[in-house]
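A quick word before the example. In earlier lectures we treated sequence and structure as two separate objects. From today on, think of them as two lines of the same record. Here is UDP-N-acetylmuramoyl-tripeptide--D-alanyl-D-alanine ligase written that way.
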Amino acid sequence: MKIEQLHKLFLECQSACTDTRKIKPNDMFFALKGDNFNGNTYAVKAIESGAKYCIVDEAEFNTSPQTILVTNVLETLQELASFHRTYLNIPIIALTGSNGKTTTKELINATLSQKYRTTATVGNLNNHIGVPLTLLSMTKNTEIGIVEMGANHLKEIEFLSNIAKPDYGYITNFGKAHLEGFGSVEGVIKGKSELYQFLNENNKTIFVNGNDAIQLEKTKQSNTIVFGKNTGFDVQVSFIEAQPNVSVNYNGLTIQSHLIGEYNFFNIAAAITIANYFKVDDKLIKTGIENYIPSNNRSQVLTKGSNKIILDAYNANPTSMQAALLNFEKLNDGNKIAFLGDMFELGNDAEQEHHNIIGLIEALNFQAVLIGENFNKTTSNSNKVTTFESFDDFKNKFETSKLTNSTLLIKGSRGMAMERILDLL
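And the structure line, produced from the sequence above:
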């Protein structure tokens, strides 16, 4: 079946789905395969659950008028998403980066949605499956699409850009993330900059943090909208303070966010700049930023008993860990303890990067509890640092009941699931 024909069938459907547990009536189900599952085997269940059509790539499961046999389900999903994007012909904003991309995406959506009907990536569905599903979630009612792109190897952003065909793009930053896949920070810069390359080659627009020298260098020949703290930029946003939350000044308006940490300043400034470009009224931009409340373990501020908790446990890498610790140091709170989990996907740099974090903690004025194999084998002579080899080891030995009237930072890579500490408090 040609992609044009498949797209006509897709337009009869409610949405695209890859999980039979989440099927809604009239969905189009894509029977994807993984290392430990074969979606083809769920074809009958998908139809019984209400799917209008089921896309399979193994002939033995093509047993119904509602099943459609293709050569490769994943490639068909990607091709259909790209065709649908062209069919809709709406502005698409893409963003990637080492840190802050999901928060920035949410802020962009919060501001643009004050004026437009937007569709944005849900959560962090930002890979070779998530990006197509995001595009297929857009409809004729969508006026602007916002697509987050993640990557841990070279050529991934290039691949996703060719699917989404963005008109606008922004890279939050270049940091020490996924070093195992990218090989080095230079590899990270090269990989993330594949978005710039696509936009350049197609004469599209790039939003640039003018206070980031690497971004300026990478985009100096581009069609750019430059923002930052300096006068003379296309958009100027001034930092006011980060305590208790980040507040900024834009066009004479004070905007008070619910985000912690000065590192969120440029995430806010990027959203303001993009909304400004799309002619969202300044007061509506303020409303969008101020109404956004972080969730999903990202920069959340919680209270448990007498303890204040900064929950930033969705993920971690050396760059984001350092930023979180330096922000924690600036808090004027009394008894402060950082609970940190191992940072993953650092390859040969893992030992040194964990050692660097411990060195930073030793220079700061709070206690730290470090959990995970990498932190545990990195020695420290400081009485500020306590290490545990695993979360179970920590749970069995650390008396969380003694934590009262304290401010706690909880951060670690996703695989550490550091939010489990909340259940112990």
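Notice the following. The domain at 90-291 is CATH 3.40.1190.10 (UDP-N-acetylmuramoyl-L-alanine:D-glutamate ligase). We will return to this example when we discuss secondary structure assignment.
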